[in-house]
Structures are given as C-alpha cells and as structure tokens.
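=== Structure Prediction Worksheet ===
Name of assembly: unnamed complex
Input type: mixed (protein and possibly other molecules)
Chain count: two
Listed entries:
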Amino acid sequence: DARVTQTPRHKVTEMGQEVTMRCQPILGHNTVFWYRQTMMQGLELLAYFRNRAPLDDSGMPKDRFSAEMPDATLATLKIQPSEPRDSAVYFCASGSDRGSDTQYFGPGTRLTVL
Amino acid sequence: RKEVEQDPGPFNVPEGATVAFNCTYSNSASQSFFWYRQDCRKEPKLLMSVYSSGNEDGRFTAQLNRASQYISLLIRDSKLSDSATYLCVVTPLNAGNNRKLIWGLGTSLAVNP
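=== Predicted Assembly ===
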C-alpha cells in the first residue's frame, strides 16, 4: 500500500531554531506539494514541485522558509529561524500530472515553536 | 472573497439523517472539482471527484452546477463514522500541467447516536 511518509511526526522547538521536515513521495509520483494547516487559515499551499523543479512557492515566506527536492524520493521543507507563528501542521502531498489531479497526503508534521 | 467558500458548520445530525453541503467557487473557468475528507488530527483524503453529470458512490452523491458555480455533497443514511471535516477543492483552468488545487476551509460534520 503506497503512502507518502513524513518525518518527524511531531516537533517541539524554541524560537530561533532551525526546523527541517522531510517527505518521501509515493514512488512514481512526479508532483510534490507542501501545505501548512492552521485552524484559522485552513490548508495553505507553500510550495509545489514538478519533476523535482519548483513551480510555485509564492505561498512561502521567502526570508525564513526554503523547500528543495534533492532527489525524486525526498522533499524537504526548512524553516530558519523558526517563530511561534510557524506553529501548525505541515503536510506533504504527492501526485502525478499524467492522471487525475488527486493528491495523496502524508500524515503531517505537527510543529510547535515555543 | 475567497476563491472557494464553504459553510464551516458544524453540522450536527442524528444517525440515519441526510445532510447536504454546498461549496461555491469564484473562478468560472475552474476545471476539476473534488471533495476530500479530513478526520480529526489526520491528513485529508480524497472522498470523490465531482463530474459535470454528477456522480454517486454508495451513500454519497456529488453534483456540480457550473452556471451557479457551486458544488454539493449529499450524504444519505449518515453513520457515526461520517463525522469529519469535508473539504471542497477546485483546480483552476489555467493550471495546465500545474496541478495546484484551491482548497476551501472545510465543513465540519458531527453525526450523533
């Protein structure tokens, strides 16, 4: 049963620390999305990759957030320095542009910045 | 105005009830439509796609009204396990090979015994 995996599942850190979240998309998928979810804002798209190339990162605060895909099996989202307002659940999703627009989500990383 | 709008609820219904959710979208050129389900503290999962002709999957029926720019989800004979947040999702026409989805904030459903 193919799934998107994310690590860590939970992260508690102090303001100013660097946070790195990792995602392994479903094998064969060529699109990867990073979302942030809060109660107030719902799901916000932070970054979107297709064939490992960044296509849209307009939703991401550029000064502190960065997203990369070093290879087809790994996507990373980094926050440096972290701030309390970054506390949220961060989801990674993958899909294929050769089929439907269905996105398959990982279990998320629940981030708390103190 | 948000691109995709949903009534946040919560909808509280007894088991066996029929409940309907609506979702409106602002981009008349939107191409694809979906309902996702998200359980508490879990990730969103695709519930069903919404086709122009409408589609049904068991107790769930989805319909699209392009003229009025809304999508609906009908749940018949609701079960306790249907309690979740239902997210309306739209893909803009100009997405092309860009599979960016536009998400509503979700409608919360609680089915009570």
